[in-house]
Amino acid sequence: MKKTSFPRQDIRVLLLEGVSRSAVETFTAAGYSQIDFHEKSLPEDELKRRIADAHVIGIRSRTQLTADVLDHAKRLIAVGCFCIGTNQVDLAAAKALGIPVFNAPYSNTRSVAELVIAEAILLMRRIPQKNAECHRGGWSKSAAGSFEVRGKVLGIVGYGHIGTQTGVLAESLGMQVIYHDIETKLTLGNARAAAGLDDLLARADIVTLHVPETAQTQNMIGAQQLAAMKRGAVLINASRGTVVDIDALAAALHSGHLAGAAVDVFPVEPKGNDDAFVSPLIGMDNVILTPHVGGSTLEAQDNIGIEVAAKLVRYSDNGSTLSAVNFPEASLPGHPNSRRLLHIHRNVPGMLSRINELFSRENVNIDGQFLQTDATIGYVVIDVSTSEAQALQLKEQLAAIPGTLRARVLY
Ligand SMILES: NC(=O)C1=CN([C@@H]2O[C@H](COP(=O)(O)OP(=O)(O)OC[C@H]3O[C@@H](n4cnc5c(N)ncnc54)[C@H](O)[C@@H]3O)[C@@H](O)[C@H]2O)C=CC1
Ligand SMILES: O=C(O)CCC(=O)C(=O)O
């Protein structure tokens, strides 16, 4: 087996939050055997202890990799988010430490879109209330307040991967789709851009949110926006809990201004399946509550496990950072006949010439060199035909260049 900077069986992989077993299989098939698998996220003190020994960590949306937590990750080379959202990771802090972060940008897109469509139909038919009533032994067969979705206006806030996929499914049911996004987007089918968020809220029968968690989307749906929605409209949130002011939503539902809501994500979510869920929406018959399962289908989780684990393996074995969310992207060829040195540094003037001077001084011929930079960091990959001992020595010399964040060698 080809050696990496140290044997694959010495690379410690910490997998949290019950990521799919397909991830474990992917690591195992690639020769990684030290896999510490946990069904739940860890309390912060335990996380800090375990991350200190890990070379690779895999998380989902619960685990907060703050700058403080990452500061304990002295050996960490890469982070895998086994999901779409990466807001749970301090991406800038990870980058400053020379740690690329990977995710699975599309693997659960369809699962979320299907759930949203199902919820739109259920809410428009007032099924949550009817279901709750039947469970209590009640029976009120009536069409009052129940509508088809055909011909209704679906307002999509955040017309990205999930938003567009939801729009396509909605149109196949005969819905009219309008959307609002901060970027200019390619419009699919007969969807139309709304004039702005207020315009969308005023026109939509169903509003569904598909924005990421950012400073801008924090409480973007508050009391004022809820009041701007049509009376009797419904709201679906399967994006992030921080996007909606949950108390304002509870008030809009209690007052009857909104006819219903489906909420999958919450400002505070339980750490794991044994912890209690608390929300002002509990007990409201017209609200569908789900435990952040928008992307939780076996198909999606299986695919995510394979996709993210494969990206982590590829980075660990080969140095490729393709599709990293916080890092210069380099898609690298194999290096069957040379040893590969990786150098991550602050992007300051003169860095490349200092690196090249080192190889010239040591009289080492460079077989191949790749450089990718962004505004703050640079990533240089250098293939050389040297002995293992010299490659190690070069790695130490590279690490000593001022401004270096990380240096690794792949044999
Ligand atoms: N409930 C669940 O299990 C899941 C939730 N998600 C959440 O859904 C979010 C969206 O996922 P994707 O569609 O894949 O992301 P995406 O990045 O493809 O789309 C997000 C869209 O939101 C737009 N946007 C950003 N800020 C905005 C703002 N202030 N106002 C209007 N539009 C804004 C962006 O321009 C982009 O078009 C993820 O960030 C994640 O937080 C994703 C997967 C599963
Ligand atoms: O399934 C998960 O743990 C998180 C899903 C999600 O919210 C995401 O993919 O961003």
Automatic annotation (TrEMBL):
It catalyses: (2R)-3-phosphoglycerate + NAD(+) = 3-phosphooxypyruvate + NADH + H(+); (R)-2-hydroxyglutarate + NAD(+) = 2-oxoglutarate + NADH + H(+). Keywords: NAD, Oxidoreductase. Residues 340-411 form the ACT domain. InterPro entries: ACT-like_dom_sf, ACT_dom, AHAS_small-like_ACT, D-iso_2-hydroxyacid_DH_PdxB, D-isomer_2_OHA_DH_cat_dom, D-isomer_DH_CS, D-isomer_DH_CS1, D-isomer_DH_NAD-bd. Its EC number is 1.1.1.399, 1.1.1.95. Pathway: Amino-acid biosynthesis; L-serine biosynthesis; L-serine from 3-phospho-D-glycerate: step 1/3. The keyword Lyase does not apply. The keyword Oxidoreductase applies. Belongs to the D-isomer specific 2-hydroxyacid dehydrogenase family. Catalyzes the reversible oxidation of 3-phospho-D-glycerate to 3-phosphonooxypyruvate, the first step of the phosphorylated L-serine biosynthesis pathway. Also catalyzes the reversible oxidation of 2-hydroxyglutarate to 2-oxoglutarate. This is D-3-phosphoglycerate dehydrogenase. It comes from Chiayiivirga flava.
